[in-house]
Design goal:
The protein has 272 residues and is α+β, with helices and mostly antiparallel strands. Helices cover 33% and strands 28% of the residues. It contains four helices and twelve strands, in the order ααββαββββββαββββ. It has helices spanning 33-57, 69-118, 152-158, 229-235, and strands spanning 121-132, 135-143, 161-163, 166-168, 172-175, 181-187, 197-206, 213-221, 238-240, 243-245, 250-254, 257-265. A four-stranded antiparallel beta sheet has the order 1-2-6-5. A four-stranded antiparallel beta sheet has the order 7-8-12-11, with helices on one face. A two-stranded antiparallel ribbon has the order 3-4. The protein is flat, with a radius of gyration of 44 Å. It starts with 32 loop residues before the first helix and ends in a 7-residue tail after the last strand. 14% of the residues are buried.
Length: 272
């Protein structure tokens, strides 16, 4: 028994050209000149067949050759005819739109004349809660509507009402029958009960060191009963540091009330 204390020596008895399968000699295949000629002829024949097929599908003759002046003139005339057809269709479409708009206008005129003839009017005008800063909701009931009148919503939307001496048309209507047509308005003038305001200006300092921004806080006062504090906070104007805002940038509500927050640019906050 032979004992090895190290790997046996490596003897390279093969080369890269030796066959992987033993007992089979490796041979390089080459083409003779005659074979090259046959390959060339087959390639030329395949190209000829492909060209013939293409010519059968897309024949190139004097009738469709773009280099022929007569063909170019025919293509130009066909393009002009197509453009004229498109223009005629556009003119027809615009005429149909004008006729449609005219029909709508005439229908509205007839409905307005009929509404005035029937003498429809509003009654039971009532004010409701404030929806946002300076805006209050109103409702009223449209009366003197014939029982067989089927355009009650159109009449509701078209019939104006006077509130604080100013005419308004309904924002939306409810139709529950000839005797129960209700209009809704959002009035944005002369509504002091809906005028909330900011108080208790407070400088909260820089947003963060080097941010270049300062945080300002205000307390919102005079929110009407039933009003949404989010809506009033977002729509109550603010004026401070010679700047004007249409509302708060962000809002939060606590047991102490509603607060608005602003983040403004401040060069003094750029220093660390």
């Amino acid at each position: 028994m032979r004992l090895y204390t190290s790997p046996p020596p490596y003897v390279n008895r093969s080369s890269e050209t030796d066959p992987l399968v033993p007992d089979k000699a490796f041979r390089r295949h080459s083409c003779s000149p005659d074979q090259y000629i046959w390959i060339t002829l087959v390639a030329i024949l395949a190209m000829a067949i492909a060209f013939a097929l293409y010519a059968s599908v897309f024949p190139l003759s004097s009738c469709n050759n773009p280099l022929d002046p007569d063909v170019r003139d025919r293509i130009r005339k066909e393009w002009d005819i197509e453009c004229q057809e498109k223009l005629a269709k556009r003119v027809q479409w615009e005429r149909e739109v004008e006729e449609h708009d005219r029909d709508i206008k005439e229908r509205k005129t007839r409905e307005e004349e009929e509404r005035l003839r029937l003498n429809m009017f509003w009654t039971d005008t009532r004010s409701h809660t404030c929806t946002m800063y300076g805006i209050q909701e109103y409702t009223a009931r449209l009366v003197n509507i014939p029982g067989d009148y089927n355009r009650r919503v159109e009449a509701c939307m078209a019939t104006p009402i006077q509130i604080h001496g100013i005419e308004y048309t309904a924002k939306w209507c409810e139709d529950h029958g000839p005797r129960n047509v209700t209009g809704h308005w959002e009035v944005d003038q002369h509504e002091p009960d809906c005028a909330s305001y900011w108080n208790q200006y407070k400088d909260l300092g820089c947003a963060s060191p080097g941010s270049g921004q300062r945080r300002i806080e205000h307390h919102l006062e005079n929110i009407p009963d039933g009003g949404d504090w989010r809506e009033f906070c977002a729509t109550t104007p603010a004026n401070f540091l010679e700047m004007q805002f249409m509302g708060s940038e962000s809002c939060f509500h606590t047991i102490w009330g509603t607060y608005g927050l602003w983040v403004i640019d401040d060069e003094s906050c750029q220093c660390n």
